[in-house]
Amino acid sequence: MSVAKHNIGEQLAIPLRLVLFGGNMPTVDLSEMRVEQLDQAKSAALIQLGAMLVGVLGIIAQNIDSQPYWVLGVYATAVCTCLATRYLLVDSRGNGWIQSSSGFVAREIILGSVTGSILAAPMIWLAWAGDAQAATNAWLILIAMMAFYGFKSAPIPIMFCSIMPFVGGISAASLAALGNWPGAFSAILFTTISIMSLLAVGREYIRLAILGRKAMERGETVSLLLREFEDTSADWLWQVDSNRRISRPSPRFAHAAGQEPDFLEGVGFLQLLAGNHWEKGTLDPALHELADRLNRRESFSGLSIPYRRNGGLRWWKISASPNFDASGAFMGFRGVGSDVTEQRTSADHIAHLARFDALTGLPNRLFINETLTGALASAAEWRRSCAFLMIDLDRFKAVNDTLGHPIGDRLLAQVASRLSQLCGEDIVAGRLGGDEFAVVMREIAGIEDVERLGNRIIELVSRPYEIDHHMLYVGASLGYAIGPRDGATVEALTRNADLALYRSKDKGGGVVNTYEPSLHDQARERREIEIELRSALKKNEFTVHYQPVVTADGMVDGFEALLRWNNKKLGLVSPALFIPVAEDTRLIGPIGEWVLQTACREAVNWPTSTKVAVNVSAEQLASSDFVGSVVKALSHSGLTPSRLEIEVTESVFLREISGAMATLDQVRALGVKLVLDDFGTGYSSLGYLRMGQFSTIKVDRSFVQGALTGNRESIAIIRAVVALADSLEMTTTGEGVESQEEADAIIALGCKKLQGYHFGRPMPAEEARAIFRKNDHRSKSNAA
Predict the structure, then answer these.
(1) Three-state SS at 432
(2) Alpha carbon 540 to chain centroid distance?
(3) d(CA 698, CA 649)
(4) pLDDT tens, 390-404?
(5) Cβ distance 437 to 368 under 8 Å?
(6) Are the beta carbons of 109 and 160 closer than 8 angstroms?
(7) Cα 554 to chain centroid, rounded
(8) Could you read off the pLDDT of 127-159 as tens digits, one per residue?
(9) By C-alpha distance, which of 412, 435, 438, 570 is closest to 500?
(10) Bridge-based pairing state of the strands 542-551 and 753-755
């Protein structure tokens, strides 16, 4: 505050003329201050007159024995006349003092010079008489008289400054004439100091008056702004005394509190905010923070605090600063507040959306990562273990592709509902995105806990779902990693759990796998395969090999087209490695179309009774262009549709029956044969056979091997499959026949066709043609 005053005072630059002769400043109206100065001068005039008369009487009493009475009488009369004139003219100074008119200035100077000369007249006659002691005594009386007169003349300095130079000058000259040089010097010094001091006081008086006026104006402006603020703003003002009790509550504050202003007066601020919790002693942490700020008398801003009103919870945002009086005593707090309940509700909703999945209501990736971060920190601190499980739905894509995303979204919501049943204090489930979910186990006793929960999740998620009269079947693949054993950070643990999930998917889904360090090598190999696979078609790295399918009498009935890939960097890559990668990256579409075209072109070179079988994945059937690609391959090659067989596995139908069957029905309508591969190894259903009208059922190699060893279950299954195929006018093919004994056993059980290394390994096209040339040569020899 002092700095502000000083700066304002410097900017005022008050000239000496204003101190002595009154008047106004160009930038500041001093009229009211001049009136106040005149009022103070009037109130001091009689006291000044009395003091002057006392001094005059003192001088007369000192010289009554040495001077004639008529001299003393003239002196007393002249002094009283001058003083009375000055007193009487006080009332008439107003306009001249305010306006600083030239007449006022001249009159004050003349009246002051006359008064000063008359007051100092005794010094002249005492010097003439040579009475040094009497002159010194008279000077001392004049000093006292003028000091008092000057003190009372501070409001209007001209009253003193017009008199004192003549009193001091005459006194100094008289003392010098008497040889009292110290006295003469002191008279000059006193005169100079008193005049300068009074001028400084006068200037400071004006400065302080101006500062006071500006402060008052600012106060009025602030009050006006505050009133306008109260009237137009949604915020409100509040204040408490030094005991933290509400003082002078504003109407808007009372309205926000739901009370009358009179009721709030004197009520404890914290008690009002806490409501019923005040008696219970269970205060919100925000109220503890507020109480701490109030106790420390610290300013605070934007503090959010709860306020319970009429059974409901409101939120206020308040700011305040401590209030001190002029002496520095603490008076309480003053501040501003606003009701931010709606804003907070909106912010909470936004925060919820940022941390929870809108579709399922489960925690999203952000929340899961935060939970996993906390679990890892706790595990590291207490030397315990946590677990992170990643879940991917099997066969979900087909639901979206065939029934649409709305059905898929409702399916995801039901999956989330089932996962929520498994959650607890130490288990948090969330959705990472798409059909991928995750579970955080904050603390585990051992891997058995994770395996048990993983199997429970798969069992629960794999139960059928009924949505809009559609019975849907999806499964779940699950991979997990243990923290901090498999990763001390969220990124590391997530990456390793994802690797374990990939392994579960590679195994066909529906299983739980844990992370192993070797998975990194597999992931790196998979990545290399993906990179090379993207350019394999352009580089002509693919070839098609053909494995013969023979009848029971050993005649070649057809060939199964099998894709082979020989990469310059990776060498000969097994289909078991690159086919899953091609399916995951959706490269299987163009690759499968190339295989189909190549096989059809090659089959044209075979005898007209020989068929070619091409394997088709679920991803190919899900494509809307699949039927078109079959038509294109047949038309470009000229192959008869009845010679083409499309092989599918049972896993195709687990994605969504109607979609797969609709596509296969269109293919069958072209005259193409359908073959069901690996029958009995998956989720067999007679419905597939009835709706699909397959021409051939292939019996998996595992049953063929079991039949050779006399396994009763394998023999029973093969007999049942053969009987079923015969009743539906289908053919059965035994796969994986590697010896004559296996061939004899499978033929004895009723299989009409056989396939395996015993009859020929997958071979290049040239070798396949050679078989027909050899058969032709043998037929000609027999005929001869």
Answers:
(1) strand
(2) 52
(3) 10
(4) 999 998 887 887 788
(5) no
(6) no
(7) 74
(8) 787 777 877 888 888 777 777 776 666 667 777
(9) 438
(10) antiparallel
Which stretches within 421-463 are classed as H helix?
Answer: 447-461
Position 302 confidence tier, pLDDT thresholds 50, 70, 90 = confident
Strand ranges of the sheet holding 330-339, from the earlier edge strand across to the other edge: 236-240, 330-339, 312-324, 300-309
Helix or strand or coil: residue 67? coil
CA distances 508 to 328, 475, 512, Å, are 81, 10, 11
Partners of residue 1 on adjacent β-strands:
none
Distances (CA, A) of 191 to 187, 202, 461: 6, 16, 108
d(CA 495, CA 481): 9
CA distances from 22 to 33, 214, 324, 365 (A): 10, 19, 36, 79
User: What SS3 class is residue 486?
Assistant: coil
- Side by side, the strands of the sheet bearing 475-483 are 427-433, 436-444, 385-394, 475-483, 512-514
Q: Dihedrals φ, ψ of 531, to 5°?
A: -60, -45
Q: What is the 3-state secondary structure (H, E, C) of 314-357?
A: EEEEEEEEEEECCCCCEEEEEEEEEECHHHHHHHHHHHHHHHEC
Burial of 88 (0-12, 13-18, 19+ CB in 10 A): exposed
How far is Cα of residue 635 from the mean position of the Cα atoms in its chain?
60
CB 144 within 8 A of CB 55: yes
Average pLDDT over residues 558-581: 93
Tell me how far apart the alpha carbons of residues 752 and 730 are, in angstroms, rounded to a whole number: 10
pLDDT(74) > 60: yes
pTM of the model: 0.51
Report CA-CA distances (Å) from 292 to 270, 287, 295, 557: 11, 8, 5, 92
| Amino acid in position 689 | L
Q: Locate tokens 């098609």: which residue?
A: 544
